[in-house]
Specification:
The chain has a domain of 100 residues. Helix 2 packs antiparallel against helix 3. The chain is elongated and about 130 Å long. With 160 residues, it is mainly alpha-helical. The protein has 4 helices and no strands.
Amino acid sequence: MEKTRGSLMEPTLTTIAYFLFAGFAVGLAVGWWAALQRKDDSSDVINELKREVEAAQAAHRAYEQSVTTHFANTAQLLHRMQDDYRSIYAHIASGAQELCDSEVASQMDDMKHISGSFDVPDHLLDPSQPLDYAPKKSPGETGQLAEDFGLDKTYSTQTS
């Protein structure tokens, strides 16, 4: 009887193989199920990202359109302001001719011809880049960026 009792307790190679196969099958089934669940989640994430990109592109197009509209309105307002300026100037000039003496009226007529052209100083017309240093007065002179600029070169040495 001891032999029977001992054989029930000892696992045989076939029993171990069955348990390994059953564990592998259960693991495979659980892995397959988890992969299918993960696949569904990733497709949802991809679809959500696509919707976000499309929304961002639509917002960008709307922003571009609003910038274009803004600058078109600004140009229209500037033209209207220019026309209003001309109307005000014409009103003042006609009032000066009617209400003031001939000297003021002639000055207004002179200004009417000048108002189209502006005198710009020559230094504003110079397209060169501004300098961040003072230029040399002569080619032999050291510039302000030199190490010894502004230092006295005579050194007194004491010998003992």
